[in-house]
Amino acid sequence: MLVRLSLLLASMMVVASSELRDARVASPAGGLLVVANQKEHTLVVVDPENRRELAKISVGVNGHEVIVSQDGRFAYVPIYGNAGVGRPGTDGSTIDVIDLQARKLAATIDLGKPLRPHRAEFGPDGLLYVTAELANAVGVIDPSTRKLVAEIPTGEPQSHMLVLSLDGHRGYTANVSAGSVSVLDLVKRNLLATIPVAKSVQRISISPDGLRIFTHDQGAPRIAVIATATNKITNWIELPDVAYASAPTPDGRWLLAVSLGANRLHVVDLRTLKVVRSLEVPERSSEILIRPGGEIAYVSGTGAGKIAVLDLRSWIMQPPIDLTPGVDGLAWVPASH
In this predicted structure, what is the pLDDT of residue 335? Predict the structure, then answer.
């Protein structure tokens, strides 16, 4: 009897241990949020439904941005360095690869030289495109070999952020101190055009239909609207304060624009190009991620260490996700992964 009881208890402990491991690896029903924390040098895995941190993985100094592979298995964190754009400091030359199932560092891609890699995007071709500021270029990485296979020149310094067209034929970079946008042919891997915008710009976004690019004047409260058919500025969106980043909703109806200094999120009607509402967001909010389905927007408050959660159906702010100061880049892992 005593032996049977011991075996039963041992069996229950094995099952419990297995379930605990599965709970650590499995994604919540709605998916996962992954957050790059540039002050802690970590990638944070978050259950957004329950607003709790699931894992924290150390990465290099400093990782600002993160992108997730198309199969949801790996997160890629470009290691920029310990300074701001255009300021003296270390010059990153690597990209850290995190296994999101094992929740640990899987590999480090060596780019071979100091580049200050920053924003990465996956193209439909399966290749990873990453801005390389010190090379005035966008690097092209084959994730299967984890090697840099090409560089596409941007023709301008401080190519900091990047968006790709839906078909993967074009790339667009925001060049901070040059105050311009570079248009890249990703197939032929060359520079097509440079569009002057302002004295200085920050960040860039693209409409879901690929017809418009948005970038943000850092000297005036306005957003440039660029037509991708002509590579020319067609309109300006006037704002209450200077915008740092933006993101259009998947239906193409709204543009969310965040102000780093004013701690405000402005909602622009893309039919009229007018601000229709403004909401308070955490201190020094720097990036916007709209969840697949278009019902929720997340806004990273780098200074406050909070992720704002906005219900896009009601336009009501939900309780924030409390993390730690330094939260910056955001990416989404669907529930199926």
Answer: 82
